[in-house]
Amino acid sequence: MQVTVSSGNNIYGTLVLPIFEGTETIGATNEGVPNALKAQINRVLSEGDFKGKANSTMTLLGTDGGKAMLVGLGKEADATVHTYRDAGASAVAARKKVHGSEFTVNFSTKDTAAIAAFAEGMMLRDYEYNEYKSKDDDDDDADLSTRINCNEADVETLGAAVERAAGVAGGVHLSRDLGNCPPNDMYPMAFAEKAEAWAKQYSNVTVEVIEYEAAKRLGMGGLVAVGMGSARKPCMVIFTLNGDQSGPHPVLVGKGITFDTGGISIKPSPSMDEMKYDMGGSATVFGTMEALAAIGYDKKVVGITCMAENMPSSNAQRPGDVITTLSGKTIEVLNTDAEGRLVLSDGLWKAGTDFDAEYIIDFATLTGACVVALGHEATGLWSNDDDFRTRIHDAGNDVGELAWPMPLLPAFEKEMTDSKIADTRNLGAGRWGGANTAAAFLKQFVPEKGEGDDAKQVTWAHMDIAGTYWGAKTNKTVGHGATGVHVRTMVRLITGE
Ligand code: BES
Ligand code: ZN
Ligand code: ZN
C-alpha cells in the first residue's frame, strides 16, 4: 500500500474518517468534503446511527458521488496509539464494503504518533496471501493507495514516521509470506534460497548457509537428528546486518521446522496442516532482518535460523536415540515431537560461541503447553535476566504485541537433566508445566562467557510464539494465517524507536 502525507484538503477515492464516541458533527478540518456527503455523515452522527465504538465501521454514499467510511475510535479519554493502529487496520479490513483502491483519511488531531499508528495499522492489515490462487476473482484486490490529510500536524515528521512504518510492515509481511507458504514449497533449502536472493537487495547484509553435510561435519547433532528423516535436508541460515560498530550486538535465533509431523512420535491428523507454521520463529528472524535493513538500521545484528523438516521415515531418529549436540552435551530423545528444542540447542550454542552476543533471543513455536497457558493473546517470555525480560515485555507493549513473563525455575531444569544415560533429555517427567520445562531445557545450551568466577551465562530470552504466530483472532492487524508477530517488537527493542 502506497501512503502519502499531505496538508491539503483534496479527497481522492473514499474518505475515511476516524470518529470518537459522542462525536455529533465533523469539524472544520473537513472543508474538502462534498456538501451532500457531509450532511449525510453529520446526520448519522447526530442521530446516533454511528456511535464511534472502537473498530466499528459504516459506509456512506453521498448523493453527489462521494463515498465515506466512518471508523470508530471508542472513547477519546481511552485512546492510545493502539486504538489508532487497530482503527486503521479495521478500516482496511472493511475495505471490500466500499469497492475502491483509493482512500483519503482526514485527521483532525495534531498528534503525529496517533496518525502514524493509524497508517501503520492500515499497512499491516493490507495483506492477503494469494500466491496460489490461479485467478483473481476480486477487483478489490487492486493495490490500495492512501492519502493522509493532516493539516494540523507536522507533515515532515509524519512523512518520515510513515516511511519507517512502511519499511517495518514490509518485514512483517515477509514473515507472513514465509509462514503462509505451503510446506511442499517451504522446505529448509527453499528458505535458504529465499534468504540468499533477499541478501542481493542490500549492500550491507550477508547470508551464509550451512548445508546438511557441513552441519554433520561441524557436529550440529540436534539439527541433523531432526532433519535426517526427511528427503528435504536440514540447514542453518545465518543472516548478518553489517553495522558500523564492533563489539557486542544482538543475536536472534529462530526455530525453523518447515513441517512438524512429530516424526516417529507422530502427531494426530486433525489440524496437522497447521504445522506448516512451525517455522514461525525463523520467519520472525528473517522478517526482523528485512525490517531493520529497510529502515537503514546501521548497527550489527545477526540472525540464526535452524531449518529442518520433522518427518517419520527409515532414516528418521527414534525415541530412545542419544544425540550429541554442537555444545558437546548429549540428549536422550524421548519424544521426536519435541524437536524444536533439539534444533535450537545448536542454534543457541552457536549464537553464544561464534558471535560477540550482547544478548540472544530465540523465537519458537515450541509448545502446545504455552498455548494452553496463554491462549492466542500473548507470547510466553522467559529470560535468565529479569531486567532484560522486562525490556522485551515493555517493547512488546509499546507496539501492541504482548509477551507475558514466565518462570525459569531450577526444578524445571532438574527435571530435564534427569536422564539415566545422557546429559539431558528432551521430554519432561510428566505433562505439567510443559512450556516451562522446554524453556529450562533451552537454557542449558546458552553458553557462558568469561573465565572462572567471572563466568556468566550470556543474556538470553526465549519467546514461545506457538499461540501467537497464527490463529490470533483478536489481532486486528491481521486477517487469516501467519501474524508476523514480534518483528515490530524486535525493531522497537533493537533500535529503541
Ligand atoms: N511444534 C510443536 C508445538 C506446537 C503445538 C505449536 C501446537 C503450536 C501448536 C512442538 O514441536 C511440539 O510438538 N511440542 C510438543 C512437545 C512435547 C512432545 C513435549 C507439544 O507441545 O506437545
Ligand atoms: Zn513437534
Ligand atoms: Zn515443532
Description:
The chain has helices at residues 35-46, 81-93, 112-125, 155-180, 188-199, 212-218, 221-227, 280-294, 340-354, 368-374, 386-399, 410-417, 434-443, 487-495; strands at 2-6, 14-20, 57-61, 67-74, 102-106, 145-149, 205-210, 235-241, 249-260, 301-310, 322-324, 330-332, 357-364, 379-383, 403-405, 424-425, 448-449, 456-457, 460-464. By secondary structure, the protein is of the alpha/beta class. The chain folds into two domains: 2-135 and 143-150, Leucine Aminopeptidase, subunit E, domain 1 (3-Layer(aba) Sandwich), CATH 3.40.220.10; 167-495, Aminopeptidase, CATH 3.40.630.10. The strands form four sheets. The chain has an eight-stranded mixed sheet, with helices on both faces. The longest helix has 26 residues, at 155-180. The site of one zinc ion has 4 residues, from loops.
